[in-house]
Automatic annotation (TrEMBL):
This is Multidrug efflux system outer membrane protein. It comes from Flavobacterium nitrogenifigens. Transmembrane segments: none annotated. Pfam families: OEP. GO terms for molecular function: efflux transmembrane transporter activity. The keyword Membrane applies.
Length: 455
């Protein structure tokens, strides 16, 4: 009965201090605020979020959607992120166990009666009471690290969607450039055949023949370059989707692809909720902040409860007799006296570490706003530039047709035709690249606003 009373008293001591936690209380740092984005062409709405738009709904190409889905299933960066998430989950489980008593058993058998230690079969319990909140702070810190790791997984998901999509647009751009170059080569080759026959017949000077021959060689040289770039992109996409490098299937051309052109435009502060990289940095700051409490708790004494029960006897044959049974419950206290400021420096270190994490959080938030501003401006400017470039291609085609007709009617030299043809070729390539950039800018805007990871 006396032992039971002692145990109950110690248990009450263990339970009561769970309201005692040393350490500062977390508050979210102030962030610079703005009512709207600078380059937004629509009013901000605090109720809308790009996270409500699933990534698969912004593309109209089943081949591209299939590549992204394959990447989500097989990408090794994502598998690594999931493995890290499971590591943190296991670590959190270990930290939670520190809040509770630990139980052990031990046994020893000695046949010699004169041996120093008797035979024994014992069970014991030890419990360090979380009087100052050291283990609770550690548990909360690990919970925030778990959330930060999950946000890191979402960052990788977002990168997979955007990287595969942008790489696919670049691949289709090179396909289009190859088609333009092959068509240009065929046109120049036909012109060379005609001019070469006219040169042999003495109707044109050798200069005309040499000039067109040079342009044929330029077009021929561009084809291997574009093919190398296509192979490199196919290999890069293969790695992104977790497969051995191989040919990538094609769907629609970039000119046929459509992307949702407008996304919900919320206020900049919504990035704190939408963007996983921003949320990750805040969770890391929270984790570092909680470890200040861990360091402060280590400056105070620790309280321990221990209990033992079992059998011990010099005679191994009498080990489990009633007279061999023993039990005991006890408590203890240990604490630092003087260690040359080590514990204080530990608190200072964790304060500065938390301050570093806070600055990282604030910097990430500002970077997120800048990325949205850049993406909003890019989408608007690429649209305007594409319109102008398209007019340039139409005019360059007409200029080439007129120059070609004027040359064969003997009004101009072939140098004018070559200049017009070169301008048309460059304008077509520029328009192809701009179409790819316009598509990519919409994906980057979707990602910058916090989309791309909700599945």
């Amino acid at each position: 009965m006396k032992t039971l009373k002692i145990f109950l008293a110690l248990f009450l001591i263990a339970v009561f201090p769970y309201g005692c936690m040393v350490g500062p209380k977390y508050t979210q740092p102030e962030q610079p605020q703005a009512d709207s984005f600078r380059y937004s062409n629509q009013p901000a709405d605090t109720t809308k979020s790009v996270t409500t738009i699933k990534w698969s709904t912004i593309f109209n190409d089943d081949v591209l959607i299939g590549l992204i889905e394959k990447g989500i299933q097989n990408n090794y960066d994502l598998k690594i992120a999931i493995a890290r998430l499971e590591q943190v989950q296991a670590n959190l489980g270990m930290a939670k166990a520190d809040l509770y008593p630990s139980f052990q058993y031990s046994g020893q058998v000695n046949t010699a009666q004169t041996f120093q230690w008797p035979s024994a079969a014992l069970a014991n319990m030890s419990w360090e009471l979380d009087f100052w909140g050291k283990y609770r702070h550690q548990k909360i810190a690990l919970q925030n690290e778990l959330l930060a790791t999950d946000e890191a997984r979402k960052v990788i998901l977002s990168n997979i969607v955007s990287n595969i999509a942008i790489s696919y647009f670049e691949l289709r751009d090179f396909d289009n450039q190859l088609e333009i170059t092959v068509h240009t080569l065929e046109s120049r080759q036909k012109a060379y055949d005609i001019i070469n026959e006219r040169f042999i017949s003495g109707y044109v000077a050798e200069l005309d023949k040499v000039q067109i021959e040079q342009q044929v060689a330029i077009a021929e040289a561009n084809i291997p370059l574009i093919k190398r770039q296509i192979t490199a992109l196919e290999n890069a996409i293969s790695v992104l989707i977790g497969q051995v490098p191989q040919a990538i299937p094609r769907g629609k051309t970039n000119s046929e692809l459509l992307i949702l052109t407008e996304f919900p435009n919320s206020v900049p502060s919504a990035l704190l909720e939408n963007r996983p990289d921003v949320k990750r940095q805040e969770y890391l700051y929270k984790a570092a902040f909680e470890r200040i409490g861990v360091a402060q708790a280590m400056r105070y004494p620790s309280f321990n409860i221990s209990a033992i029960a079992g059998f011990t006897n010099i005679m191994v044959n009498d080990l489990f007799n009633d007279g061999s049974y023993i039990q005991n419950v006890g408590g203890g206290i240990t604490g630092p006296i003087f260690n040359f400021g080590k514990n204080k420096r530990r608190v200072d270190y964790n304060r500065k570490l938390a301050e570093e994490m806070k600055f990282n959080f604030q910097k990430t938030y500002l970077t997120a706003i800048a990325e949205v501003e850049n993406s909003l401006q890019n989408t608007a400017m690429y649209k305007e530039e594409w319109t102008a470039r398209n007019r340039q291609v139409v005019a360059a085609q007409k200029n080439y047709d007129l120059s070609n007709a004027r040359y064969y009617n003997g009004y101009v030299s072939y140098l004018e035709v070559l200049d017009a043809q070169r301008s048309l070729f460059e304008a077509q390539l520029s328009l192809s690249q701009l179409t790819q950039k316009q598509l990519s800018s919409m994906v980057q805007l979707y990602k910058a606003l916090g989309g791309g990871w909700s599945f």
